[in-house]
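Onboarding guide, step 5: your first structure request.
Type a short instruction followed by the sequence, for example:

Predict the 3D structure of this protein.
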Amino acid sequence: MSSPSPEHPGARSSKLAASDAPAVIESAFGVGSPVFTETTERLSRIYSQAGHLPQVAARFREWQHFRGQANGDTVAEEQLFINQTYLALLARLVARRFVAPHRPICNSEELLEVINVDYFSRRGISNFGEGDVFSWPLIEVRWDLGLNNLILETMQGLADSVATPDFSHASPGILDSVYRQMGPASGPVPRWLAEYVVEAELGMAVDPGRSLVDPACGTGTFLCVAVGAMSRAIAKTGGDQMDLLFDAPERIRGMDSDPLAVSLARLSYLLALGDLVQEEHPPFLIPVYLANASSADKFQPLASEEDAVTLKTTAGDFPLPAPVIDNPLMLDWVLGRLTNYMDGAQVRLHVQQEEVAVQEVLNAYYNYVTSPKPRTPVPEALTPQQADTLLETAKSLIQLHIKGEGTLWLHLVQNMAAPMVFAHRGFDRLAGSGSAAHLVTLGSSYLRTNGKAAVVLSAGEAEQNAKGCRLITMNELLPNAALLVTGPEQRAKFESIGEPISPDSSWADAQTSIRVVSEE
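The system replies with structure tokens like these:
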């Protein structure tokens, strides 16, 4: 036990990390814990009264849609949606305790800003879940429904549950064991194996300047070990650790089609950046997106700056101009500023017809996107043709906002464009777990020429797809798993030479008990 928490002078705090036994985390926050039971019961009461509202119903519908893509679960139940909302909101509160460990949440206004993610945006941390499918409890009409007190009680009770533990040194993956309780989820990749893949097979320890993508990142295991490898490389060369905030989001990116996995991957990515985010820091973006990686092959490469691509969704088509695909900060900075214009259109409805109100704010937005923006991450103005393309998307989002779905779809467009952005950019390395599709289909979509991929998958599938690859079996350690790496065809195996190792051991520590032996 550590010294008393600064937030609760009379209480004693305990440090929690992913390396704690999963049973400890599950006892405190897992399914069946007191805070889980109390929070989900309250969320159920809120949902029973608000589930019919457009901004809530749309989030449940799109959550179901993404669940279908991720797990084939097209009829996911409302209770699972509520349970997953609990964990997504808990992740935001853990993030708040991590970035400002010695300052309590001062009032209900700040608490709600943490829940709706405005708190992180104000601290210069973007793409942490603004307007996502789990933001439904903070409905704008909660006062009209008499739900404001219940919502505040729900959020305060959840905040109280994270007030005593010390999250200042929390590790990536801290809530993953609770995520697996809500399944279905594949078994976790041990830390030592993920580090071996990223550092030894993909060479990120030798050249941390390489870029890496995990196109089905789950809760972010490979992304976080890649960030760790980059951090250690910066320290080894005597570099400025603050460079990690510039370089990691630019070079190490991921996506997944499971909304809850993405929420936890964002938390883990933030934790992987370490105490840098507890200091004053430049703005940065968490490069983990809610998107289906397999959609990349539907888009044609951009031939010129005036080209555009169209994002097809259940709410219609959203065209995006080339600069938005060239630079993901465009999605966050230029499209993200649209929220002000969406709200402006809604205010104008009190005195103007919808068509007039929408057109007036579109005119103002056009002036914004076609003007230079010095001292911002995206200083260049869009050309008139590029702006006209973006305005088609802006108009659709404003109209959806008037119907109550705008902030959701703004978030989804910003995220679902990731396959286009990633494929256009290209990466040096691809890591992940799941299936051989990572090597074949996704590798061809996201890897640059001479890029390299490494995937953890089932032993049987690995054997079936081993031709032309390096196959590493793990019979003594993980009997049903194997590793495939693109490159010269070889066979090797992990061999146990010492005491059993913890899944949370680093690769550096694991090498006292494991070695890789060639079978050639």
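Each response can be followed by summary notes, for example: The chain has a mean pLDDT of 90.
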